[in-house]
Amino acid sequence: MADFTSIAAVCSSIARFIEFSFREQQPITGRTTSVRVLRTVDLNPDTSTLLTPPTLSLFLYRVDYNKTMRAAWSATAVYDSHSHLPLDLHFLLIPWGENADHEHRMIGRAMQCLEDTPIFSGPLLDPIATWSSQESIQVCLEDLSTEDVMRTFDSLPLDYKLSIPYLARITVLHGQRDDLVPRTASVVTGVTSEVSDE
Description:
The chain has 198 residues and is α+β, with helices and mostly antiparallel strands. It has four helices and eight strands. The strands form two sheets. A six-stranded mixed sheet has the order 1-2-3-6-5-4. It holds the Pfam family Pvc16_N.
């Protein structure tokens, strides 16, 4: 089951898949387009060294719990004694090209790839997380209003730029196993005493 590394694993899985798809067919003839997972501070084209055109950036701007599956996974926790947090990961795909045509090609090729393969499972999932054989992630276009997009860019260190919103769901962050939880204290009849870790 995927643990705390699952968020990072989803980001790298999507980036690796798009980059592999670009190698099969480059968006810009004669050029190699790179794919980068960026932080907020990396989105400043004046200071970032990661935005050399042509580059497609994958920017995780929001993590939220999945409202539909939260109750079901909470019920599961009652039976297996492990926490399960279903998450939705919200991304922006942002192209960085030398002209509008190049940026449109990068976005078009990335959208084509993700539409052809909207479900990530098995070898498409980065093994930095301990995925179970039943786990999969759906990557789909997200319906954002113009107001929501503009509000997001208001908080970023760059002016509005062509971007496509994507949603990765459902990433389930499973709790730590009992045998990995460090035991440092024991409560017996209301008195706390130190317990050896050995």
